């Protein structure tokens, strides 16, 4: 039975657009930290606030969609367009399509903004030419990096199939999220020179067990989607590894202002969920991702590693990060303080 709703116009924006909005806000918050007045306060508020708002809207859209159409009949390719058509609102599907196109455009534009900031930071360590890190005096933005990334994004979007791009984006995003959660655990439980060898070894062991059980669970799901024995083995192993990490390895450092709560449970769950989702992506996408990753690793080992090492040596010789990041040949003076990130952007 299809339940009609009295005021559906407030839900005409498609789910894909909210996905675009959510990813756009998160991307902006992460990559534009240098351009905020108080990153330690503004970034967490922006991230948490955006996630709460978009999650609430996701729930409203899901409820509305299920009220319009039985969930068994939901079209996974165009859920809202088909749902509106099924209730006789054929004109509404055009609004949905327009919103979806707007969402895709927003993702591309915001992606350019984030990628340009990534390229700027990479070039500051001389892994890319310093020309990319030049900041416009008037706008305070990396114009060169933005122009290059805009052209590159447009070319890739024009000549590449959407399903290939979406799968590569999914792999890279999930893989990065998994690495961030893993790095959070390492940072919280390990400090070089302070953590004992025994605690370090326990940390490594528990992390390897957690990763191994998560990979095994994703593999089992891919090979046997109707079985359950594998989950009865891998889930308890992951649970025991997380418990062991929480009770047998002491914290090496604690956050001063903002910190991830429920450590190690939340990061460990993030690792498990992201690896499980990675297991749902097709083989060809992993081959493409592996090829690009291999190419970038070769570039980093033969060029980027040496460039960043030379940059660190220049800093040790007293030039300071300001001149190094701006690609200047000036000499650092002890009487002049090193510019902060905000000052460098404003300059």
UniProtKB/TrEMBL annotation:
The chain crosses the membrane at residues 45-71, 91-120, 141-162, 168-191, 203-222, 228-250, 257-277, 289-309. It is found in: Membrane. InterPro entries: AA/rel_permease1, CAT_C. GO terms for cellular component: plasma membrane. It is a multi-pass membrane protein. GO terms for molecular function: L-glutamate transmembrane transporter activity; L-lysine transmembrane transporter activity. Pfam families: AA_permease_2, AA_permease_C. This is Cationic amino acid transporter 1-like.
